[in-house]
Amino acid sequence: MKQRGPGVDRPLSRRPGAGEGAGRRSEPTPAKPRIDKASANDQSLDAIIAADKAAALKLAPVSRETEERLDRYIALLREWQAKTNLVAPSTLPNLWTRHIADSLQLVDLAPAAKRWADFGSGGGFPGVVLACAMAGTPGASVHLVERIAKKAAFLREAIRVTASPGVVHLAEIGDNVDRITGPVDCVTARALAPLHQLIGFAEPLMRQGAKALFLKGQDVEAELTEAAKYWNIQPQLHPSRTGDGWIVELSAAERRG
């Protein structure tokens, strides 16, 4: 059977040519507040996070009920962040745009999906966010696979506090297939591993009908080139609403050779 090479459906970005912008005076970059784990609950962050929340909910609107669940989740994350590194401290002022909205945009790419699997859930992105968004959907479930016990404990508490339909699996990512029971509509991962490895983790679920949505950064082209050495894939690329990253959508994957 003839194998198909990878195809990519994406807009092309334009880079500025040499000399463009010459003669302009560059504006000084505003200094960012220095944030560390100990300052996660600093009240001076409250106003910054509130403004960031408003911006995020314009990018990814949610119901009042989902917003309340996400508020409880963020409060818990800030409490745990003071003693456990769940997110990069520098991203705390932008928790909502950098992490919440970035996760919520997946829902629009798989509007019919009810059953999700999130590999390497870490601090809960996108797994807990998806569970919060799915809480009002009959039959919804989100499997969160995490190999670090302390983070898995946080994820369980986040699911409890938000009353969301999530199941936490303390396991190595490659051991997920035997632990996840029942059908999965969509599998996802964020900041976990190179694309060709993610496809290997997800392929057993994709073979059973799941779609994959992987959140990736600016180096997505290089990752697609590397993945094509191992897999026959027909990816679609969706630009992220929240930055310069991309979402790689895959409906199938066939190992080469």
List keywords for this structure.
single chain, Rossmann fold, 7-stranded mixed sheet, two-stranded antiparallel sheet, 8 helices, 37% helix, disordered N terminus
Strand runs, count: 9
Which structural class fits the helix and strand makeup? alpha/beta
CATH topology: Rossmann fold
Shape: globular
As laid out across the biggest beta sheet, the strand order is 3-2-1-4-5-8-7
Quickly count the helices.
8
Unreliable runs, pLDDT <50, ≥5 residues? 1-33
Topology record:
Layout lengths: L43 H16 L4 H18 L13 H15 L5 E5 L7 H8 L6 E6 L2 H14 L3 E5 L5 H4 L6 E5 L4 H13 L3 E6 L3 H8 L3 E3 L2 E4 L6 E5 L2 E3 L2
Parallel strand pairs: 1-2, 1-4, 2-3, 4-5
Antiparallel strand pairs: 5-8, 6-9, 7-8
Helix pairs in contact: 1-3, 2-4, 2-5, 3-4, 7-8
How would you describe the overall organization of this protein?
The chain has helices spanning 44-59, 64-81, 95-109, 127-134, 149-162, 176-179, 195-207, 220-227; strands at residues 115-119, 141-146, 166-170, 186-190, 211-216, 231-233, 236-239, 246-250, 253-255. The chain is α/β, with parallel strands linked by helices and 257 residues long. The chain has a single domain, classed as 3-Layer(aba) Sandwich (Rossmann fold). The strands form 2 sheets. Strands 3-2-1-4-5-8-7 form a 7-stranded mixed beta sheet, sandwiched between helices. It has a two-stranded antiparallel ribbon with strand order 6-9. Strand 1, helix 4 and strand 2 (141-146) form a beta-alpha-beta unit. Helix 2 packs antiparallel against helix 4 (127-134), helix 2 packs antiparallel against helix 5 (149-162) and helix 3 (95-109) crosses helix 4. It is globular. The N and C termini lie close together (12 Å). Mean pLDDT is 86; it is low at 1-33.
